[in-house]
Amino acid sequence: MTPDTDRCDRLSLTWRDPPGWWGFLTTVDHKRIAARYIVTVLLLLFLAGMLALDMRWQLSWAENTRMGPQLYNESFSLHGSTMLFLVSVPAMEAMALWLVPLMLGQRNMAFPRLGAFSYWLYLGGVLTLWVAHALDVTPDLGWFEYPPLSGPSYAPGHRADIWAQMITFTEVAALCASVNVAATILKMRPPGMTLARMPVFLWAMLIASLMTILSMPAIMLVTSMLIADRLVSTHFFAPAANGDVLLFQHLFWFFGHPEVYIIFIPATGFVSSIVETFARRRLFGHHVLVLAILAIGCLAFGLWVHHMFAVGLPRLGNDFYTAASMAIAVPAGLQIFCWIATMVTGRMWLATPMLWVLGFVATFVLGGLSGVMTASAALDLQLTDSYFVVAHFHYVLVGGAMFPLFGAFSYWYPKATGRLMSERWGRTAFMLIVGGFNLGFAPMHLLGLMGMPRRVYTYPAGMGWDGLNQIASLGSAIAVAGGLVFVANALLSYWRGERAGADPWGASTLEWAGESPSPPWNFAYTPVVDSLTPLWDAPTLRVMDGVAIERREVIVTSVVDAAPLYRQKSAEPSIWPFVAALAVTAMFLGSIFTPWAIAAGALPIAAALTGWFWPQRGRARTGPLRVRS
Amino acid sequence: MKARFTIVCLLLSGCAGVQSALDPGGDQARALFSLFTLMMWVCGFVYAVVAAGLGWALWRAWRRRGADARADGSVTHGTDGRLPRLMPLAVGAIVLPLTVLITASFFADRALFATRAQPALEVRVTGHQWWWRVQYRDPSSGGWIETANELHLPQGQTVRLVLGAADVIHSFWVPNVAGKLDMIPGRTNVLDVTARRPGWFRGQCAEFCGLQHAHMALSVKVESPAAFRAWLAAQAAPAAAASGRGAAVFATACAACHAIRGAGAEGRAGPDLTHVVSRRTLAAGTLTMTRGNLQGWIAQPQAIKPGTSMPAIPLDPADADAVASYLMALR
């Protein structure tokens, strides 16, 4: 049903943001917030990439004196912390924030102001880490700073506290984003989109959100315990006072392992969407894909000890974790099987997003296989803490998350901007990045087996490691060049790209139903869904009317069957998320220096939350909903 | 691609090294290398299957290239018809290699601990920031024979390494001999090693332990049991009683941290120096043992290994010469 201009004008009045800076600070438009996340993530990706190049230059020659130990230790700590806490997870959150309402035919998320709040808090975490770096208080003990090295005796000053508190910022932001995404997916699906008709992408985002909610408390707990040890002389991790340093490792990795699957599972959602579109057939084994994601989500919580195989835990326990860690290859392998089966039995065509999927399969599977090697508790005693495991986790993170992200970015770019990215430059960027990455990280497998430990700022001459290190540096530089080409393509295409219609790729899911770029209200009518591939199954999409136009409103549906339940007023632009984030930031930063900040900081937070939740709206209205085709 | 690494490695012949897991010189390293070889074959095969699948998809797309290779709104109505037959095959194709590898891993793990029931020579290795304290039991007196940064192992005999840490977490790793095991303050870990090939190997700390983690290396000598006993006896002998200007400088400037058995110096903060010049390297593998390096290290430890616990003690040139001469006699 084509909406008339009068309807669109009225929707525009209801859903537009206030103008200027005030609009910037108060917007609750999920697309604008997601765009902010993406821009911040790309900037941090660039900074982390520069750190990586710096380290690679340092390691290209034995006994290189360009970087001293302090600077190098800061570099790998900043690189790891930025990539894992400030880039990978937020990038997935951003894609969810942007795409979930669009794929559900909705006008906004379940909790619009919470989405804004999660971005401001994430930005607080970014600034905590990077302003600290500018002020030369950079954390320098790695991205998982083990005590006692990070304890009060061996890490004086505030570097470790800044690291721990940065994590608190990002974890609260992630929890907020995850609650938002999970509630939206479970309770705000379009009528007819039962769980059985829900696209794999939404399953992936749902499971990743639930995993976040279950795993984040562990790391918030453990970093708070570390700060307590450092600030108020508790002895959680002090062996001399009957504390246990292994407690830190268990709690950290209980979060840390699910974290990497929280990063990987959304990527499987991207790949599923792209494969379906570019194979031009419904995904082969949809149920298998969904069950595989569920299985990975559950299994991921039972593997964390494989990060501790060299710690000296009882051998039988280690064997259990070996079996569990290898077992997770079953659902992952079945996913690869289903995607390849879809490609083979479909009519695949190779635009840039599909190239990224191919790069993902080729690279991630390699990382998964080196993961099978490190999963062996015995063999891991040679591989862990060496360049072999550095190669492994870069293969799975870059191949398994970054490549799908690049593909997703190319794929949904026309929906976000109304223009297509250049195919030619897209192919160039793809070849430089995938080729450069493999050239850079494949040699590291060998370096690790040849005895090079990780986190070393230099190595002696005569070990035979120089040549491989130089190849690794060359490959990394090529990959970074490709990254720059990718970003340049994105920027230039914004103004000069070929204009895209609503559905340039011929895709099947609801986000492609509205115009490109999506207007602030996303859809003029509520889609009604009859299958997994709504845009493919009928000459026109069935829609329904009844959600208000004069005020912000969304439709809430039941969890399993997506039967419409009621209309819910959707939050207007508000300054309170920003104010609350400022208050929380003040408390978090203050508690680096004094425990009293927690008491003092609670007051502004209470004030901000009072403002946020101040009742302003009437009760939800119920009334008849009409189906119009 | 993985299997190709072994070939590349053999071609580069850089894997035959003194700190290489690909060049096993001990029972434990050999068991792990066998497991690694099996893994390479199995994983290589699996990767080839996945690559073939991708290749098949690409080939079918290549055959259809041209008019069909763009979005034209048409869709293939594929079904899941073959799924019930293919799924058990797919699951089996993944579960079977994994079962093989899990079983092989279990057996390799058992092999690493096979010697635990038997008695073995016990050596205590304690990790410090950024050096290794190595202690052997003196069979005659029952006391400790202490050295630092160098470990000697009798060829063909199992040595039980009792690993501890004095400050932060370190990790003991001599890849040619065995896998690594962490050294954790508040815990004791035990690693059995059975070295077979004589010669010098290099180990390195494998858990980030602070500023100079990169310069915490260990020299390991594997020698015949007779040579080992001779070495141990020489290490057990105390140094000559202190006399001369060098000894006097040492007593004032160095004895607070360093011990020389027999000369009255009993400092425990730094490495034992009773037979320092018998060792191959200085500062945990950072410098070779020469008089020039020794004197340079004493004069400017922070320049060579920034952040090291050893402060720069200002000595006038005559004193510096004297103490260096004194130490050079401690073989």
Helix content of chain A: 55-70%
Residue stretches of chain B low in confidence (pLDDT < 50, at least 5 long) are none
Q: Biggest interface pair, residues each?
A: A-B, 99 and 95 residues
Helix-strand sequence of chain A: HHHHHHHHHHHHHHHHEHEEEHHE
The number of strands of chain A is: 5
Oligomer: heterodimer
Tally the beta strands of chain B. Answer: 14
Largest sheet of chain B: 5 strands, mixed
Q: Give the overall pLDDT of chain B as a whole number.
A: 92
What is the overall shape of chain B?
A: elongated
* Overall 3D shape of chain A: globular
Largest sheet of chain A: 3 strands, antiparallel
- Percentage of residues in helical conformation of chain B: 25-40%
How do the SSEs of chain B run, as a string of H and E?
HHHEEEEEEEEEEHHEEEEHHH
* Category from helices, strands and their pairing of chain B: alpha+beta
Unreliable spans of chain A: none
Our measurement of the CA-to-CA distance between the termini of chain B, rounded to an integer number of angstroms, reads: 50 Å
What is the mean predicted local confidence, pLDDT of chain A? 95
Straight-line distance between termini of chain A: 8 Å
Keywords:
heterodimer, A: 629 residues, mainly alpha, three-stranded antiparallel sheet, two-stranded antiparallel ribbon, 64% helix, 3% strand, B: 331 residues, alpha+beta, three-stranded mixed sheet, 8 helices, 14 strands
Give an overview of the whole structure.
The complex is a heterodimer of chains A (629) and B (331). By secondary structure, chain A is mainly alpha-helical. Helix content of chain A is 64%, strand content 3%. In chain A, the strands form 2 sheets. In chain A, strands 1-2-5 form a 3-stranded antiparallel sheet, with no helix packed on it. Chain A has a two-stranded antiparallel ribbon with strand order 3-4. The longest helix of chain A has 35 residues, at 69-103. The model of chain A has no long low-confidence stretch (mean pLDDT 95). With 331 residues, chain B is of the alpha+beta class. Chain B contains 8 helices and 14 strands. Chain B has helices spanning 2-12, 27-63, 83-112, 225-236, 245-253, 291-299, 301-304, 317-328, and strands at residues 121-128, 131-137, 144-148, 150-154, 158-165, 170-172, 181-183, 189-194, 199-204, 217-223, 259-260, 265-266, 281-282, 287-288. In chain B, helix 2 runs antiparallel to helix 3, helix 5 packs across helix 8 (317-328) and helix 6 (291-299) packs across helix 8 (317-328). The two termini of chain B are 50 Å apart. The model of chain B has no long low-confidence stretch (mean pLDDT 92). Chains A and B meet through helix 4, helix 8, helix 9, helix 10 and helix 11 of A and helix 1, helix 2 and helix 3 of B.
